Amino acid sequence: MVSNLFWMGKRSIIFIFFSLHFFYLSAQDTLPRFSVIDKGNNRIQIKWINPFSTCNQILIQRSFDSSKNFKTIFSVPSPKQPINGYVDNAAPINNMYYRIFYVLDGGNYFFTEAKRSQDPNVYLKKDSTPSVEYIDKRTIVVKKEDSILYTFDVGRFEQFKDSILHTTRDTLFSKTFDTVLLKSFIPKEVFIPSIYIFTEKEGHVKIALPDVPQKHYRVHFFEMDDTPLFEMKNIKEPFLIVDKTNFIHAGWFKFELYEDQNLKEKNKIYIPKDF
């Protein structure tokens, strides 16, 4: 009898533990649960808590129907973040259906149930009841390549993430459950040819200058490492051709064009490999 009572008590404790654990997760819309809130002006907020440290992909999908024709509208760049969300600013109507597709390490994937948006006032009323708070005490490490840049608690990391998102073009990627990589935005250089000094079809350099009789022009040519190559002073002709052999080798060269001792343009030219 005592043994039976012991096991019954143990089962009760286990049941209570899992009940509390379930309440802890469900009260905070933990995956596979999530919240869909109508923010007005066809802006729909989807938010969730991710308890899976092995999550490697999260897709937000929407449809006019609750069971079919779902299309992916957003791929979450940092799926391992425990508290996350997305605002759909292009919802055709404010009662679309949404679901979340997520993938765990090993290839296991899941679809949540489809949900439509709630009235924000109803959601606030529901959330105003006491519930167990989700507390994430992790330390988030932000790295750039192999160097540690910052160490934040989760709250400060959320502020940092928002700052990166809204004030820079850099990108954050989750590497592990507590490590984030910062990748700097590197703009592609766009070459805009000069209208004064440029390479013509034969590969020679053409110089075309306006108002030569009234102006004093000179041009400096440089290697790309700023080593001086040669200079042309007191240019008196409106059109000149500089033979490509003056540039010694093929490739890019810098130049500076001066007009009446003032720098008019800094640019570059390309000498092709055909001589």
Structural notes for this entry:
- The chain has 275 residues and is an alpha+beta fold.
- The chain is 17% helix and 40% strand.
- The protein has helices spanning 2-26, 120-127, 154-167; strands spanning 35-38, 44-49, 55-63, 71-75, 83-88, 97-104, 109-111, 115-116, 139-144, 147-153, 171-176, 179-183, 197-199, 205-208, 217-222, 228-235, 239-242, 251-259, 262-271.
- It is elongated.
List keywords for this structure.
275 residues; alpha+beta; Immunoglobulin-like; 19 strands
CATH topology of the largest domain: Immunoglobulin-like
* Broad shape: elongated
Q: What series of H and E elements makes up the topology?
A: HEEEEEEEEHEEHEEEEEEEEE
How many structural domains are formed by the residues? 3
Beta strands, count: 19
Average residue pLDDT: 81
Classify the secondary structure makeup into a structural class.
Answer: alpha+beta
Question: What is the CATH H-level superfamily of the largest domain?
Answer: Immunoglobulins
Our measurement of the CA-to-CA distance between the termini, rounded to an integer number of angstroms, reads 102 Å
Q: What's the alpha carbon Rg, rounded to whole Å?
A: 32 Å
Question: Architecture of the largest domain, CATH level 2?
Answer: Sandwich
CATH class of the largest domain: Mainly Beta
- Put simply, the count of helices is 3
Query: How does the major sheet shape up?
Result: 5 strands, antiparallel
Low-confidence stretches: 1-28, 122-134
- Which percent range describes the beta-strand content? 35-45%
User: Helix share of residues?
Assistant: 10-25%
